[in-house]
TrEMBL record:
Keywords: Hydrolase, Signal. Residues 26-89, 90-151 form the SLH domain. Residues 224-533 form the GH18 domain. Residues 1-22 form the signal peptide. Gene3D superfamilies: 3.10.50.10, Glycosidases. SUPFAM superfamilies: (Trans)glycosidases. InterPro entries: Chitinase_II/V-like_cat, Chitinase_insertion_sf, GH, Glyco_hydro18_cat, SLH_dom. Coiled coil: none annotated. One of its GO terms (molecular function) is hydrolase activity. Pfam families: Glyco_hydro_18, SLH. This is Glycosyl hydrolase family 18 protein.
Amino acid sequence: MYKKITGFMILLLFVAAGNAYAYDVPMAKYKDIMEQSWEKDYVYTLSALGIIEGYPDSKYHSEEALSREAFIKLLVTAAKLDISQTSGTVPADAVNRWSAPYIAAASERHWIEFMVNEADEFKPEQPITREEVAAVVGMYLLDKDESVGPQWISGDWSKERDARAYSDIQIISNKLAPYVFYTINRTVMEGDNQGFRPKSGLIRSEAAAVINRLIDIETVGQELEITGFYAIKSSPAIARMSLVDNVAMGWSHLEYDTAGTAKLGTNTTTYQVPDGFEEVLKAADQANVNKDLMVFFNEREKLAAFLKDALAQKMFISQLVAKLNDPVFGFSGVSLDLEGLIEESDAPNYTQFVRDVKAAIGSKTLSVCIPTDHYYKGYNYKDLSAAADSLILMAYDFTHDDSHLPSAPLPLVRDGVERALKQGVPASKLVLGISKQANQWITTNSKTTTAKPAIELVEKRIADPNASKTWSMPYFLKLVQYQDGSNINEIYYEDTQSIAKKIWLAKVYGLKGISLWHMGNFTASDWDIIAKK
């Protein structure tokens, strides 16, 4: 592994299958954010979202005052405003500053007019006060809550003021008070035993909390569609059918060994129609969920050849249609999980195959599982999303053994989502894949090996009082550490807390939903979180 450090950015360069690829994503610990720091989750969450970053000394500097321009950048970024498309006026003293596009976006929405003086100065480097932050945030929120605005500004705000009764309430600007108290009403900011402290500067830890709370407001009430993959050892989850909207049965695979012929196989060790499948179908029907047939294949070279073989594709699609229309199963659609396409030249062939499948299955639904495109270039996200009903982003398996990089660190998951959206996938069609798994590194006499322990074994280890359990930043995964004889063990685990964070991430980006690979691995506490969507 080669590391290149530029400021706070860490570029991780890995080698796989003879090809180099990079995760150009900040993933580092802040030296000054301790385990017990109250702002820990706020800071690392915004870092994972790519909204903030630290200093070249790898510190966050929580107690440092935040400038006006720095806060406006945070707000505009969190609001996902397009700074390349803005017509806002930039005050004279900010025209040539790095922050000008962000200030223009805020100016266009009339959020910062009260901070511009008669000399047309914004004073971008000046520390921003808590009152100014509350006012800007209040304006932002009231823009979004248009039905509330007129009545609030005309008088309802004073009820909030009277209810708070801060000791320093008299020094809050009358002009800004309606907006300040709306921010307080929405619990984005609050006072303490010293009052609201309106004229005090906002420090960086407080700014992280404010922006996090704003983002949380965006996620309230959002519903996600849940797709559960009933595959491998999922029978323990049969009673959970009512908690998903779609269930994809991992019961089939593509068979392709000879040119001109292909088959929809249903009898491998891993992907097969199981004995007692009728019970599974009955449970799905009773839960009134959509039933999809999952088709799996992961042999890259064979897949690339298949996508150039029109006769084989025609044969496969005809068998797929027959299976989907078999009244014994009553499938609602199909989920294609054809993995391994590295070359960009494969992308048009795969897209055309997906189009042909969609045309053949008629009114039945089609979802397509896609890997993140850091390495796999054979999937044209935009074209696939136009052809299919949904794309399931398998935002996991980033694992790199030598660096102890686990399967699904939140910064990389976020990056995968953003890359898909930037390539033109509508959020309304994108599903965030969550894989319930663990990565283990075992070091004995300075030699390290890896493993993927079973979920039940990891849960037992978590219950062991002798094992160290921490919420690992910046990955947002459970880290379990223990010694077993001469073996030093380190396990990164997708636990209930990390699953909740990924569900939250899907809401932040307004995605269609999440998928669960595979249903049998998820624990009772995981299902409790999933039930809340």
